[in-house]
């Protein structure tokens, strides 16, 4: 039997996108509706491709609903699939575990929610498909659920639907870990995984796939986001295509300011790089984080007047249309030329710089800093700890924070006159 199906995961329906709404003038309604629009794109793709069924490998929702509108939106969209004879099969993940969603809506008959108590198998007799799966009963499942999945059914195309971190992935909780070697040898024809937000093909014999999430939610989820469109012919997978569904795309825009002599030159370089980003992502709203880097004479001026740079870049974006691009944040990674280092070498400020750099190079000191941040978290700005920003338990994040502290202190201690050095 020949057929196609869609494998998607981590919809996080109505999840708030992090980092944009706090800026005046941001297209808030567009941002809030991004996950819904991406899910609508998924439904449109299923209809256009006339797929046999749709698999959702966990985290359809982003936790308990604020109201019933989230669930009602899902039902309204999958009703379009029912009218086309397309069934939906889903499992619960850590964000929408059975114990997590307290509000309930009756699901249409063509939507099957797998058991969270034990693995079960659903047969699609007309296609010769057996789908095996189990959802999360609670948010923090630490056992290997795949070990209890049933053996493959002879003469059927066997699909494993599993929400897992696999062998562990950076930035994702270690939920339902599993041995990918075990998955490979299980005898299934395709493993439809969820939980990891970056697209990844672990294996092709059989296919073991993370499709990633369908809509990036913050700056750590850059690039195209979507689902896997799978083609099956004569009981074998003959193609897996990643199809973009996102309506808002996060991108890290790196501006090389090396050798820039003035603020205006840096701004010109940034404008050129933004144009490149627009060209590469034509047709989608862009959320850009701009990183300006490199040793340059303009470093001191940039450090002393960061708000001006941020607003000048936002102004450039607005000129091109607020429905096209938004500057989420500007990060400075520039460094002074040798002359400033020579000036500071004979100054008491040099000892402060040395202390900060030694602190950043000593892992024991960084662990103490991490503990202090955790202890005093309530007294610190909430933005510092929001999703997609600094991880106080990550050494690299702390080193980056110390670098920013050094630049900030220099700008305060040198004063505005430093810009003319």
Strand content: 15-25%
Largest sheet: 6 strands, mixed
Which series of helices and strands comes N to C? EHHEHEEEEEHEEEEEEHEHHEHHHH
- How do the strands of the widest beta sheet line up side by side? 4-3-2-1-11-12
Could you give the count of β-strands? 15
pLDDT under 50 segments (min length 5)? 416-421
- Helical percentage: 25-40%
Please count the helical segments: 11
In terms of quaternary structure, the protein is: single chain
Gyration radius from CA atoms, angstroms: 25 Å
Write structural notes for this entry:
By secondary structure, this protein is α/β, with parallel strands linked by helices. It has three domains: 3-244, Metallo-dependent phosphatases (Purple Acid Phosphatase, chain A, domain 2), CATH 3.60.21.10; 247-335, no CATH class; 340-415, no CATH class. The chain has eleven helices and 15 strands. It is elongated, with a radius of gyration of 25 Å. The N and C termini lie far apart (74 Å). 37% of the residues are buried.
Write a compact overview of the structure shown.
The chain has 421 residues and is of the alpha/beta class.
Keywords:
single chain, Purple Acid Phosphatase, chain A, domain 2, 3 domains, 6-stranded mixed β-sheet, 11 helices, 15 strands, 23% strand, elongated
Question: What's the topology here?
Answer:
Layout: E1 3-8, H1 28-32, H2 34-49, E2 53-57, H3 69-83, E3 87-91, E4 111-113, E5 120-124, E6 129-133, E7 157-163, H4 180-185, E8 190-194, E9 200-204, E10 207-210, E11 226-233, E12 236-244, E13 248-256, H5 263-280, E14 285-295, H6 299-304, H7 306-319, E15 325-335, H8 338-345, H9 349-361, H10 363-375, H11 395-414
Helix pairs in contact: 2-3, 5-7, 9-11
């Amino acid at each position: 039997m020949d057929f196609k199906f869609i494998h998607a995961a981590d919809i996080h329906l109505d999840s708030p996108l992090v980092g944009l709404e706090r800026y005046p003038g941001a297209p808030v309604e567009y941002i809030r509706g991004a996950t819904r629009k991406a899910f609508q794109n998924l439904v449109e793709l299923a209809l256009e491709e006339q797929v046999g069924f749709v698999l959702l490998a966990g985290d359809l929702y982003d936790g308990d609903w604020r109201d019933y509108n989230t669930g009602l939106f899902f039902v309204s969209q999958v009703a379009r699939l029912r009218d086309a004879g397309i069934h939906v099969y889903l499992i619960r993940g850590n964000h929408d575990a059975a114990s997590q969603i307290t509000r309930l809506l009756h699901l249409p008959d063509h939507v099957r929610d797998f058991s969270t108590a034990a693995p079960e198998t659903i047969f699609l007799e007309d296609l010769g498909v057996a789908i095996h799966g189990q959802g999360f009963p609670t948010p923090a499942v630490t056992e290997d659920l795949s070990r209890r999945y049933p053996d493959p059914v002879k003469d059927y195309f066997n699909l494993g639907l599993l929400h897992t971190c696999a062998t562990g992935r950076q930035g994702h909780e270690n939920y339902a870990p599993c041995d990918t070697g075990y998955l490979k040898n299980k005898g299934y024809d395709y493993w439809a995984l969820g939980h990891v937000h970056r697209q990844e093909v672990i294996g092709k014999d059989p296919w073991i796939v993370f499709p990633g999430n369908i809509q990036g939610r913050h700056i750590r989820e850059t690039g195209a986001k979507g689902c896997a469109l799978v083609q099956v012919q004569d009981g074998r997978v003959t193609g897996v295509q990643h199809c973009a569904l996102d309506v808002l795309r996060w991108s890290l825009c790196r501006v090389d300011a090396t050798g820039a002599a003035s603020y205006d030159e840096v701004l010109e370089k940034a404008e050129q790089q933004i144009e490149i980003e627009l060209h590469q992502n034509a047709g989608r709203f862009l959320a850009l984080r701009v990183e300006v880097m490199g040793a340059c004479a303009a470093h001191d001026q940039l450090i002393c007047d960061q708000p001006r740079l941020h607003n000048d870049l936002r102004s450039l974006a607005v000129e091109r249309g607020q429905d096209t691009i938004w500057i989420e944040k500007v990060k400075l990674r520039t460094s002074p030329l040798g002359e400033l280092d020579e000036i500071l070498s004979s100054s008491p400020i040099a000892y402060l710089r040395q202390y900060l750099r030694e602190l950043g190079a000593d892992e024991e000191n960084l662990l103490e800093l991490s503990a202090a941040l955790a202890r005093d978290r309530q007294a610190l700005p909430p933005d510092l700890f929001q999703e997609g920003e600094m991880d106080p338990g990550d050494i690299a994040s702390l080193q980056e924070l110390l670098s920013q502290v050094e630049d900030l202190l220099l700008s305060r201690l040198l004063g505005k006159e430093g810009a003319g050095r």
